[in-house]
Design brief:
Aminopeptidase, 4 helices, 147 residues, globular, alpha+beta
């Protein structure tokens, strides 16, 4: 795609943004999950991890995975504004993905949570982490939750 067209179509952060401070969370399984912000360059690996869930009809994984796949692809291609993604990693393995978008400085839209490891409360911890990041690090006053 030409640089001229990309300069018109491409979007990114247009409000102040601070990076997510990585942390370690002890899971129910006794494992330690590192939660950190994903870099845009990691999106292809995240998309690959979500792909097997696109047809899994249990617990709405297919719906959530399809929506999150589209959101992360839009983030990767710079077609969505103010999106961030946090990931959970246990022993070098991706175990969960969450993403959110800032509508503006005060209002964030919580997109989706995908737990790739079940039974360890990965999704719950990552859900809390993304909301903490929105409010404590980025200064949001309101979070609209996608359901």
């Amino acid at each position: 795609m030409s640089e001229e067209i990309e300069s018109i179509l491409g979007v990114d952060w247009d409000i102040p943004k601070n990076p997510y401070p990585p942390k370690t969370i002890l899971l129910l399984t006794g494992e330690r999950m590192v939660v950190r912000e994903a870099a845009r360059e990691e999106a292809p690996k995240l998309l690959q991890a979500i792909s097997p869930l696109l047809t899994l009809s249990r617990d709405f994984y297919d719906i959530v995975a399809t929506r999150q796949y589209a959101e992360l692809l839009g983030w990767y291609r710079r077609r969505v504004r103010n999106e961030f993604c946090l990931i959970g990693i246990v022993d070098g393995t991706l175990v969960g993905i969450v993403n959110t978008s800032a509508h503006d400085q005060k209002t964030h839209i919580s997109y989706h949570t995908t737990a790739l490891k079940r039974g360890a409360r990965v999704g719950a911890h990552l859900f809390a982490a993304k909301h903490e990041h929105s409010m404590e690090t980025l200064g949001a006053e309101e979070i609209l939750v996608t359901a």
